[in-house]
């Protein structure tokens, strides 16, 4: 599966700072200092209805991570998946009378278009669950052979007891886990499971549903969590720098994925930091495909909204915060974009070296994008009301905003 085209990232003078970021597992801020190549895995979409503002906010956060690392003169090895076979996709296709593969391909193509328009840097490896199946099957077989998985009426389940570190990503108690498991795709009440929290690794073929050859597992399809584990281990290995996604993935998805990988490798941890973006609401409720309260990036673009303004709207909120999308949020972003473009369009201006360093400092401090915007705002306000004679300043601010915030002025 191919990703989307990469926009050029301008080089800035000097060098960026190492990233300090909030880690869900330790519930504190840690400093990440990767080697020459920083490694990040971000969970991708289930392509049955893409791309809403909640998606865009999440991928914007991890785009900032990439940009901070690139500014430190590191390379970035970024991997993202597409869950192109799963119950929600099959259910939507059945409801609307569509072929599930065509639905997945169409929505994935739209996601690529949205990511390109928003200038999100693409992953080096963009892998679909279906194409990952040949690598998933051996992992499930290994877990079963090691006693970390068991059969139940043809399905294969992972035993959470097989990982002594289970629970250390989300830090939730058993009752909270059980409630979230039922809410987020698990089946804690299924009779015969060793532990209600045990997640499915391989689902035996069901009538009328797609299935693949699973070797000794029989025909079927993979569970949700093992998909990302297989892709991450194949392309990044254990101990990569960041496992990222929305806050609703901390449990069960990232918790279970970490335990799968740790049981397979007997290494800990799977990722050095588990980083989660907040949820975006509309009309007082979290944007959700099930609720249908969605604002789509593609719809905004069709209405003539500049993608740069959409991105500034996302950047005006800290990535970990839950917030609400409103017409005012977008209007403020449109006005900010106009002010910034006016300021950098002048032939000269006030010195801007300080702006570069302020933006760097803000982003290195747990991706504080609102503080970065405020730093640019201060220069812009002064630039639009004062005279300066630095011919390089407008270009430097424009390159800084492009390189570190992904906004083309």
Give a summary of the structure in a few sentences:
With 409 residues, the protein is α/β, with parallel strands linked by helices. The protein is built from 13 helices and 14 strands. Helix 11 (353-364) runs parallel beside helix 13 (393-405).
Structure notes:
The protein is α/β, with parallel strands linked by helices and 409 residues long. It has two domains: 19-277, HUPs (Rossmann fold, 3-Layer(aba) Sandwich); 307-405, Up-down Bundle (Four Helix Bundle (Hemerythrin (Met), subunit A)). 43% of the residues lie in helices and 16% in strands. It contains 13 helices and 14 strands. It has helices spanning 53-71, 87-96, 100-117, 129-145, 174-183, 224-235, 250-265, 297-302, 307-315, 327-344, 353-364, 369-383, 393-405; strands at 19-23, 28-32, 37-42, 75-82, 125-128, 149-152, 155-158, 200-204, 220-222, 240-246, 271-277, 280-282, 285-286, 323-324. The strands form four sheets. The protein has a five-stranded parallel β-sheet, with helices on both faces. Helix 1 (53-71) links the parallel strand 3 (37-42) and strand 4 (75-82). Helix 4 packs across helix 6, helix 6 (224-235) packs across helix 7 and helix 11 (353-364) packs parallel to helix 13. The protein is globular and about 75 Å long. The chain starts with 18 loop residues before the first strand and ends with a helix. The model has no long low-confidence stretch (mean pLDDT 96).
């Amino acid at each position: 599966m191919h990703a989307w085209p990469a926009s050029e990232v301008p080089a800035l003078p000097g060098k960026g700072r190492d990233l300090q970021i909030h880690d869900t597992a330790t519930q504190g801020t840690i400093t990440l200092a990767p080697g020459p190549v920083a490694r990040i895995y971000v969970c991708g979409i289930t392509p049955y209805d893409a791309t809403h503002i909640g998606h865009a906010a999440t991928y914007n956060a991890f785009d900032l991570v990439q940009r901070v690392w690139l500014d430190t003169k590191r390379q970035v090895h970024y991997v993202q998946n597409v869950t192109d076979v799963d119950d929600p996709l099959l259910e939507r296709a059945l409801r609307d009378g569509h072929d599930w593969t065509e639905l997945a391909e169409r929505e994935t193509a739209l996601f690529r278009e949205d990511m390109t328009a928003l200038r999100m840097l693409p992953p080096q490896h963009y892998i679909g669950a279906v194409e990952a199946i040949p690598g998933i099957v051996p992992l499930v077989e290994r877990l079963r052979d090691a006693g970390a998985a068991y059969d139940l009426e043809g399905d294969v389940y992972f035993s959470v007891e097989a990982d002594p570190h289970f629970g250390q990503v989300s830090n939730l108690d058993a009752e909270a886990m059980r409630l979230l498991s039922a809410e987020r795709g698990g089946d804690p009440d299924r009779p015969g499971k060793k532990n209600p929290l045990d997640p499915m690794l391989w689902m035996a073929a069901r009538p009328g549903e797609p299935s693949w050859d699973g070797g000794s597992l029989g025909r079927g399809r993979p569970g949700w969590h093992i998909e990302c584990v297989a892709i991450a281990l194949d392309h990044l290995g254990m101990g990569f720098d960041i496992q990222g996604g929305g806050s609703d993935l901390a449990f069960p998805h990232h918790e279970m994925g970490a335990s799968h990988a740790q049981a397979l490798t007997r290494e800990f941890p799977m990722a050095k930091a588990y980083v989660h973006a907040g949820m975006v609401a509309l009309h007082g409720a979290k944007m959700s495909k099930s609720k249908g309260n969605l604002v789509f990036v593609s719809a905004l673009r069709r209405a003539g909204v500049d993608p740069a303004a959409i991105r500034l709207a996302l950047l005006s909120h800290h990535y970990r915060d839950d917030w609400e999308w409103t017409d005012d949020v977008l209007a403020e972003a449109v006005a900010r974009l106009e002010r910034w473009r006016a300021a950098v369009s002048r032939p000269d201006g006030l010195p801007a070296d300080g702006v570069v360093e302020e933006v760097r400092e803000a982003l290195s401090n747990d991706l504080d994008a609102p503080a970065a915007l405020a730093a640019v705002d201060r220069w812009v306000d002064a630039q639009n009301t004062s005279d300066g004679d630095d011919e390089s300043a407008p270009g430097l601010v424009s390159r800084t905003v492009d390189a570190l915030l992904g906004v083309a002025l």
